[in-house]
Design brief:
alpha+beta, ten-stranded antiparallel β-sheet, two-stranded antiparallel ribbon, 3 helices
């Protein structure tokens, strides 16, 4: 299993998946992310066809925003994972997709920070400071998404470990059964820090916060 920092919002079944994509685009744009790939022609980006029947050699697509939208319409808003980029000088990627929420009902909206979007000391002279900056940018997008999806709560977790590391609009405590073990940060005690966001909801995250770097977790204050 690959690793990533996940954001999930489970919304009701009343609206089709296609309804949520423009809101997701708006949240990403508000946080400064765009579909344009920095290494592609202007207006072009990448997305994945993640349907079970997709040809493994034809999964990644590169094209215009219209080609992404056409794919979303063909797939009824699901089974497509789109990449969005922060701006210069050090662009990094986040990924967005929708899926069936299974037994919980409705649909799950995901806004993912891939492990590859975090840096280590081989890639940046101050990796801790740069990763805090990237996490804050990702959280800006998460906040904008929640503002458009209220009252549905947000959960944040590390995919491979299954660690719950934050919530918006839901209760979260350091002794939650899915939180990291109390000794995961060594001698640093784990606590929950909450703050009220601009749209009135409460963001609660672990402090220090686990950041995967150089094959291990570094615990940083956001």
């Amino acid at each position: 299993m690959s690793n990533a920092l996940m954001c999930e919002v489970v919304v009701g079944p009343e609206r089709p998946a296609e309804y949520w994509w423009p809101l997701l685009f708006g949240a990403l744009r508000r946080a400064g992310f765009a579909f344009d790939d920095p290494w592609s022609p202007p207006g072009w980006g990448t997305f994945l066809d993640v349907t079970p029947e997709a040809d493994p050699d034809d999964v990644q697509q590169r094209g215009s925003f219209r080609s992404l939208w056409d794919a979303l319409m063909r797939r009824h808003g699901e089974h497509v994972l789109a990449t969005f980029w922060s701006g210069a000088p050090d662009p990094f990627a986040v990924e967005a997709n929708l899926d069936d929420a299974g037994e919980r009902g409705g649909r799950a909206i995901y806004l993912t920070l891939p492990l590859e979007s975090l840096v280590d000391e081989r890639e940046h002279p101050q990796p801790g400071q740069e990763n805090v900056h990237r996490l804050r940018r990702w959280l800006d997008a998460v906040e904008a998404l929640h503002a458009l999806c209220e009252p549905h709560p947000v959960t944040l977790w590390w995919q491979k470990q299954g660690w719950l590391v934050g919530t918006i609009g839901a209760r979260f405590a350091a002794d939650h059964p899915d939180a990291p073990p109390r000794d995961a940060a060594g001698s640093a005690p784990l606590r929950i820090v909450c703050r009220t966001l601009a749209h009135g909801a409460e963001l609660c995250i672990l402090d220090p916060f686990p950041v995967r770097m150089s094959g291990r977790f570094i615990w940083l204050s956001l």
